[in-house]
Amino acid sequence: MSNDILENYIRLVQRVDSHTRRVDAAFSGRMACKKGCDACCRYLSIFPVEAFAMARAFLNLDQDRRERINARIKEAPEVCPLLVDHECVLYHARPLICRTHGYPVTFESDGALQVDFCPLNFKGVQHFDQEILISLDQLNQVLFAVNARFLDQIDTEPLLPDRIPIGDALFLLA
Q: 42: closest CA among 129, 109, 101, 120?
């Protein structure tokens, strides 16, 4: 699969990563989340565009690592198979939910704008400037549009489901 078909998704990931790097810099030394912190890691389902990007990255792993991940899927299907020794094996290719989790986000709930963040990550922080916040509603709208464009460009039989569990996503290109 060429990068062209994933171009919109790759650009979205770059924008999100750029934003989270700015947050990291703004809160340097005050953020608890780092390698080894996996309290938020869960077995998720993701959009097909994210699934294909992860499957491509999975194919680039060595055979031994792919086999160990496959074994983890069979042994503990409710746990994210990519979390090995408190570290994401495909961190560079993780989906957007993983890239934004723990960062300060906004979303609408019952007509009111809510702010959420990982209390383990931002200890003692009570307020975030607007430019630090990630609008989950906007991000999900853009991701939905990127996914729709991706699906228009590929031809699969049978049609892909709206969401794909990570354990299944890894093997889409196998």
A: 101
Question: 24-33, 126-135, 138-147: which range is least confident on average?
Answer: 24-33
pLDDT at 85: 84
Rounded to the nearest angstrom, the gap between the alpha carbon of residue 102 and the centroid of all alpha carbons in its chain is 12
| Parallel, antiparallel or unpaired: strands 112-116 and 105-109 | antiparallel
Query: Which residues are 108's β-sheet partners?
Result: 113
User: DSSP letters of 25-89?
Assistant: HHTTTT----TT--TT----EE-HHHHHHHHHHHHTS-HHHHHHHHHHHHH-TTS-TTEETTEET
Distance separating alpha carbons of residues 57 and 16, to the nearest angstrom = 19
Least Cα distance to 123 among 11, 37, 36, 52 occurs for 37
Q: Which residues contact 99 (CB under 8 A, 6 or more apart)?
A: 13, 16, 17, 20
3-state SS, residue 94:
coil
Q: Which residues contact 111 (CB under 8 A, 6 or more apart)?
A: none
User: How many H helices and E strands in the chain?
Assistant: 6, 7
pLDDT by residue (tens digit) across 99-139?
999 899 999 999 999 999 888 888 778 788 999 999 999 99
For residue 29, give both structure tokens: 């030394």
Task: Decide if pLDDT at 165 tops 90.
Answer: yes
